[in-house]
C-alpha cells in the first residue's frame, strides 16, 4: 500500500492533549514535515489536522492532530466537539503531556479505554527536565506505556525520542492492522473464482467502479484468486460459459432478486454490502439487528445512515429504495431520518431500527463504535445489504457464505419460535379460562 491507500483502510492514530503541550510539533517530527502550524500561543490548532503516511511495518497510517479540549468559550466548545468526534475513529490514541498528569489526561485515557482503544503516553519536552515521579507512578498504576520525546528538537533525529515513539506505535497497534483481514478472498481461495455482479446504473460513477467493488477485486487478486466482473443482465450467460461453477457470486444489493434467480442454488451468494458488514463492522450483531424489521409497525422511526456524503439521485438506495422496500414489508408508513458522513445523532433512543451502509469510507473502529452506541441505546442496528435481503425474503441465502452469522440467525429464530409458543399457550390458556367462566355463568 502507498499514499493512494484509501483513508478508511489506514490505521487512525489520534493525538490528544492539553493546549500547547507540543501535539503539533510531535506530528511534524513524526512525519518529518511541516504538517501542522506550531506556535507558542495556546489554541493554535483549531480543527483536527490529518496526515497520511507510510509507517513500516504497520503500513499506511493516518495521524490526526487535535485541538486541546481543555478549552472554553463558544469557539472553544466547537474545538472540543470536533476533537471528541476523533475519539470515535481512533484506532490508537497518543496522549501528549509536558509532564503534567491530572484530571484532564485521566478523562482522555478513560474516553479511549471506554472504546477499547490502545493508548501510548508521550511525555514531551523531556529536554526541559524529567517528568514528575507522581506522573510516572500514575502511568505505571494505569499500565499505560510511555515514551519521552523532545519533539521541537528536530535537528537531532536520534535523540528526540521519535524513533522510540515509532517503535511504540508498532508494538501497540491493533493486531488487525498487522494482519489485515480479507474482504472476500478467504471465502474463495487461491486458484478459485468469484463472479462479481456490478450493475451499471445511474448511481455507478462515470468511468469507474465504486470503492467496495474495487477493493474486493484487489483483495481477490492479492490472494491469488480469480474474478469475473459482469452486469446483472449478463450473469446467466456468463455462468453458462464457465466449465465449473464459481466458488462465490457477489452482487450489488440492489440487484439481489435477479441475481438470486440467475445463480444456481448450490453456488453461495452474497452482496458487497454484507461483505463490508463483516470487514468494517460486526456481521453477527448486524444480522441479529435485521430481525427488528419484523417488529416494525406503522409510525415507527428508522434511521438511515450513510458513511459518505454522495450526491443523491432519483433512485438513491438509502433515500428511496430501502425506505420503499421497508414500507412495503411493514405494510404501513414509517418515519425515516437520513444522515450522511459524520452527522450522526447523539440520541438514538427515538429510533426503532438503524440501517447503516457498508461503511467503506469509514475505518473499522468508527463503524464498531456506531454499533456499540446503538447497543448502549438498546436500538437494533443492521446494514443496507442485510436489510434488502431480509425485506426481499432471501436472507438465509445471502448469509450462506457466513456460517457463524447464519447460525446466530437460525438460533434467534428458534428462540423467537419458542417465545411465540409460550405466549400462544398462555393466551390459549387464558382464553380457555375465560370461556369456562362464561360457561359457568
Summarize the structure.
This protein is of the alpha/beta class and 441 residues long. Among the domains are: 7-177, Rossmann fold (3-Layer(aba) Sandwich), CATH 3.40.50; 284-399, Rossmann fold (3-Layer(aba) Sandwich), CATH 3.40.50. 40% of the residues lie in helices and 16% in strands.
How is the secondary structure organized here?
Blueprint: E1 11-17, H1 23-31, E2 49-55, E3 59-65, H2 73-87, E4 92-97, H3 103-114, E5 119-123, H4 133-142, E6 146-148, H5 162-172, E7 193-197, H6 211-222, E8 226-230, H7 235-241, E9 248-251, H8 256-262, E10 269-271, H9 272-280, H10 283-289, E11 301-306, H11 317-330, E12 335-340, E13 353-356, H12 364-377, E14 381-383, H13 384-391, H14 395-399, H15 403-440
Parallel strand pairs: 1-3, 1-4, 4-5, 5-6, 7-8, 7-9, 9-10, 11-12, 11-13, 13-14
Antiparallel strand pairs: 2-3
Helix pairs in contact: 10-15, 11-13
Amino acid at each position: 500500500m502507498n499514499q493512494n491507500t484509501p483513508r478508511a483502510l489506514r490505521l487512525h492514530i489520534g493525538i490528544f492533549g492539553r493546549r500547547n503541550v507540543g501535539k503539533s510539533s510531535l506530528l511534524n517530527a513524526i512525519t518529518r514535515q511541516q504538517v501542522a502550524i506550531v506556535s507558542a500561543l495556546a489554541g493554535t490548532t483549531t480543527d483536527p489536522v490529518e496526515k497520511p503516511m507510510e509507517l513500516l511495518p504497520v503500513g499506511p497510517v493516518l495521524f490526526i492532530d487535535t485541538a486541546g479540549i481543555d478549552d472554553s468559550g463558544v469557539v472553544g466548545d466547537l474545538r472540543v466537539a470536533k476533537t471528541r468526534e476523533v475519539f470515535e475513529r481512533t484506532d490508537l490514541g497518543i496522549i501528549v503531556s509536558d509532564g503534567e498528569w491530572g484530571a484532564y489526561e485521566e478523562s482522555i485515557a478513560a474516553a479511549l479505554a471506554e472504546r477499547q482503544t490502545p493508548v501510548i503516553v508521550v511525555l514531551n519536552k523531556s529536554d526541559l527536565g524529567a517528568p514528575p515521579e507522581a506522573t510516572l507512578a500514575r502511568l505505571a498504576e494505569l499500565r499505560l506505556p510511555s515514551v519521552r520525546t523532545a519533539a521541537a528538537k528536530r535537528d537531532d533525529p536520534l535523540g528526540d525520542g521519535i524513533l522510540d515513539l515509532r517503535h511504540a506505535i508498532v508494538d501497540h497497534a491493533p493486531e488487525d492492522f498487522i494482519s489485515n483481514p480479507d474482504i472476500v478472498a478467504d471465502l474463495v481461495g487461491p486458484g478459485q473464482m468469484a463472479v462479481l455482479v456490478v450493475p451499471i446504473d445511474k448511481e455507478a460513477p462515470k468511468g469507474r467502479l465504486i470503492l467496495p467493488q474495487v477493493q474486493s477485486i484487489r483483495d481477490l487478486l492479492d490472494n491469488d484468486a480469480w474474478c469475473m466482473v459482469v452486469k446483472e443482465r449478463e450473469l446467466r450467460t456468463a455462468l453458462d460459459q464457465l466449465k465449473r461453477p464459481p466458488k462465490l457470486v457477489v452482487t450489488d444489493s440492489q440487484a439481489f432478486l435477479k441475481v438470486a434467480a440467475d445463480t444456481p442454488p448450490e453456488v453461495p451468494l452474497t452482496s458487497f454490502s454484507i461483505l463490508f458488514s463483516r470487514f468494517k463492522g460486526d456481521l453477527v450483531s448486524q444480522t441479529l439487528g435485521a430481525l427488528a424489521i419484523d417488529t416494525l409497525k406503522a409510525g415507527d422511526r428508522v434511521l438511515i445512515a450513510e458513511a459518505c456524503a454522495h450526491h443523491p439521485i432519483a433512485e438513491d438506495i438509502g433515500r428511496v429504495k430501502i425506505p420503499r422496500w421497508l414500507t412495503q414489508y411493514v405494510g404501513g408508513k414509517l418515519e425515516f431520518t437520513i444522515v450522511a458522513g459524520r452527522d450522526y445523532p447523539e440520541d438514538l433512543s427515538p429510533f426503532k431500527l438503524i440501517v447503516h451502509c457498508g461503511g467503506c469510507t469509514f475505518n473499522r473502529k468508527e463503524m464498531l463504535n456506531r454499533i456499540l452506541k446503538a447497543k448502549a441505546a438498546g436500538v437494533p442496528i443492521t446494514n443496507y445489504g442485510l436489510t434488502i435481503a431480509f425485506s426481499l425474503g432471501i436472507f438465509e441465502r445471502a448469509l450462506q457464505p457466513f456460517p457463524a452469522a447464519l447460525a446466530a440467525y437460525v438460533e434467534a429464530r428458534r428462540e423467537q419460535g419458542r417465545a411465540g409458543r409460550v405466549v400462544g399457550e398462555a393466551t390459549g390458556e387464558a382464553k380457555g379460562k375465560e370461556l369456562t367462566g362464561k360457561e359457568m355463568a
